[in-house]
Amino acid sequence: MTKEKEIIKTETKKPVAKKSTSTNKTTTAKKTTAKKTTAKKTNVKKVEVKENKTKAVETVQVFETKTSQEPKVKKEKNSKKKKEKLKLNFWKMTYMWFPMWNMMRKAKKISKKNIKSPGYFSEEYCYNFVKKAAKRILYVSDITVKCEGIENWLDRGVILAPNHQSNFDPVALVALNNFYLQQPLAFIAKKELWEDKKFGRFVRLMDCIPLDRKNPRSALEAFKEGKELVVDFRRSLAIFPEGTRSHSQEVGEFQPAALKVAQMANAPVVPVTIINSYQVFSKNRPKHIEIKVVFGKPIMPLKHISLKTEDLTKNTRKVVIENMEKWADKEMLLDHKIINKINLKNREDFKKTGKTKAKKAKDKKKIKDIFKVVD
Q: FRET partner for 105 with CA separation of 20 to 30 A, picked from 93, 188, 198, 231?
């Protein structure tokens, strides 16, 4: 009996053992599956990390390329600024530094005062101040402005269409502007000049119109303001049809809609040729520069009203190029100093003959006459 009981016990124990093994297997299987799933998850995470790393590398590369491009642009801008520095005569600046500094200080003061209370300084005073500043700049930088055909610059509302070689072109035109012969000058200029510390002071003293070259609507507004200046105030409006500086003697292409103001205002167009002004800011600049300005025959409104604006710009460009080829190597007699001497008395003589009368010699004793031996 005891043996049979022991056998039954062993038989009963065996299935229990089997159950435990099955449960262990299930638990181990679950664990292995869990491990596999965790491994899969870890693999997925690793892949995601790799993808993120690749994205991070791409972003770093893009950022590096952007940062590497930015200083190049800054360097280019700085190089342009360095090229356009005006070289001044050292010996003249030794005794002209204070008048030049005072001129810059006064220009800032006048522009600020006119912004706060417009009309505090009269237009005549502001224009004369700008003209005096232009003369001083020419004197200190050893530059003379010679001209030909200044009688073509009519004493009425006119549009001047000059070629654009450098930033010194407006200074040359202002130096030749005599209020006894022509109307005061106004410019349509780029908007960035108003933000400039040096030029912005003088631009605000004149009837200048800002133009945003990126925004086409600002061009229409500028043309409307230009029309008012020419028609109502009889100003001589200067527009550079090239749009940008050429930095050379070559004449660039004129923008077709640049002279639309002339047709809007029914005003004559005077083609103007500026020669040698690109040398002012060049590296191999000569000590003394002669800027030549040629005023072509005006295109009257009866001729250009029926024309398209494109044809008008082509005709003006053709005249500018012809005068460039004609007067590039020729000498000119009239100087900005001679033109500024013209007043109400000798204005009619200048219009007839193109020259001012020489002053009569005064009958005064000289030092040489004192030591002469008298018989």
A: 188
